[in-house]
Design goal:
The protein is of the alpha/beta class. It has 3 helices and 3 strands, in the order βαβαβα. It is globular and about 35 Å long.
Length: 70
């Protein structure tokens, strides 16, 4: 399974959303993919700490998402 989150969401960013999800009682975390149009501004230290395994830059295609979950 995979969770795809956008970095810049209204009121919360995608990294914060992933960090909050880690506090849930989940038996297994999905593959975490962060989508962004602002890759130059990404705080890569936060991305790493959150356990996000793939960053995909917009505009994206279905094949880009497929590669992210492989």
């Amino acid at each position: 399974s995979a969770l795809i989150v956008d970095w810049r969401l209204g009121g919360i960013d995608g990294i914060d959303a992933v960090e909050r999800m880690r506090h849930l009682d989940l038996s297994r975390l999905p593959t975490l993919i962060l989508v962004t149009a602002y890759s130059d501004d990404l705080p890569l230290d936060r991305v790493d700490r959150a356990g996000i395994s793939k960053i995909v830059t917009k505009p994206l295609t279905p094949s880009m998402l497929f590669e992210g979950v492989r």
